[in-house]
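Session log. Operator J.P. requested a structure for one protein chain; no other inputs attached. Running the standard single-chain path with token output.
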Amino acid sequence: MTLPALQEWRDFYVMVGTASGVIVGATFVVATLASGLVEKRALGMKGFITPTTVHLGSVLVGSAILTVPTLTALALSILLGAGALGGVIYGVIVYTRITRLNIDLIDRCWYGILPILAYGLLGVAAWLVFAAIGPGLELVATALVLLLIAGMRNAWDMATFMIMGGPKAGDGKG
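Structure written below.
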């Protein structure tokens, strides 16, 4: 049995997945720019580029999964649940790493807390899809959009960081 309700969401996931793929590409451009920095600065950037790429990649993979025409509710729940669990674990690891740096609370929220919340929301959505109750597909969409927005903001943050010449006094990204 497939999920006919997913057909109504197909264009949304194609759009979100495409946006995520484009931003991943732009993030690779930022990573290339960062490779020219002094090693100390590059080490700081690696801690921010990789999580951003992982979160945007999650949006891309999630969108691809959600456009599979023969997807069952059970398969979707398992895939979303596994992705959510992996995302929460990875998010906690990232947050633990960035709390050791001297960065602003706003960056801690965007790089650490928001992705963890989005993956947690994805886990709740997986359960709702499995149980066939409530707004499961709406929560999936919300979680992916939150990850996309966090990825866009963080990619922009890294790009402006590079344009401004790297870390300044008190900036934990270097």
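Operator note: Helices lie at 5-34, 39-66, 73-98, 105-131, 136-163.
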